[in-house]
Each structure stands twice: as C-alpha cells, then as structure tokens.
Please model this.
Amino acid sequence: MALRLGVSRGPIREAFRSLEEMGLVRFEKNRGVFVREVDLERADQNYVVRGALEALAVKILAEKITEDEVRELRAIVKRMEKAIARDEAAEYGALNLGLHRRIFEMTGNSRLLAIYSRITKELTLFRRRSLAPQPSLHEHRDIVEKIAAHDAVGASQAMLNHVESARLRILTTYSP
Model:
C-alpha cells in the first residue's frame, strides 16, 4: 500500500491503527489488515445493549441536567431540523451521532461513554444505511424534552423506543 501511494510505511500503519480504533479493520498477526465485518446477529445484539446503555444514560442525565445543557441539546435538535429541511443526510447523521454522544458525555460517567463508543463504532456501517431522519427527529425531540423536564423514567422509555425503532430498521434493511 505504501508503494502504491508513494509514501512511507509509517503513515499507512497510523492510518490502519486509526481505522482499527474506529472498529472498521482488524489486524491479524503475520497476515495483514482486513476490513472488519459485523454480521446481522451481532449488530442486533449490539442494538439491544445500546438500548440499555442509552436508557441508563438519559435516566442519569435527566436527574442532573442543567439549563445550559438543556439549551445545548435543544440546539443540536434545531440543527438536525435544519439539516432535514436542506435534505443534508450526512449532516443529519453527524448531528444524530453527536447528540447521542453528548448525552453520554453529560452524564459524567466515562466508563459508560467508553462502552457506548465501542458498540457504536461497530454499528457505524449498519446505521448509515438505515437512518430515517424524519421519524428519528421527532424521537430525539421527545427524548430531549423529557430529559429537560427531569423525567428520568419517561426519557429512559423514550430512548428505549428510539433504539428499538432503529434496531427494527436494521433488521428490515439487512434481512434476506
């Protein structure tokens, strides 16, 4: 690869390490680097775990969220609305991931964030093809408003429903 691109091997190794951290490739000793494949069963299992983690995260956040944090989450949802209005799917996708990540960051629980990050990296390829901006925007707005109202139980249930909707879209999109 280094010869083909006309660069030294160091930058190639670093690029592959970054891709490995993102969960997109895997190293096999004495064999090389391979694109990582996540089968539908594993993706389904990851969605179940993701739902539980996200339900916990919004429950924790709803109990302690500040007004500044509420404004920040609402601002992300507003930007998501604008991305939909401009038909910018890539922007919407980035904001979607950002909103979920920000919820985890706001909990202040670094272990919860680390586990969530690992699972979402594995789901990246599945999520891109099954993201449904319009329904998920309404779900995101509902989740944020329940968090803002300090409704831990309602936020948790809304998040579980949201992730379950995504899981079902994945199963429908990728089932034979």
Notes: Helices lie at 2-5, 9-21, 40-64, 67-85, 89-107, 110-130, 133-148, 152-174. The longest helix spans residues 40-64. The chain is about 80% helix and 5% strand.
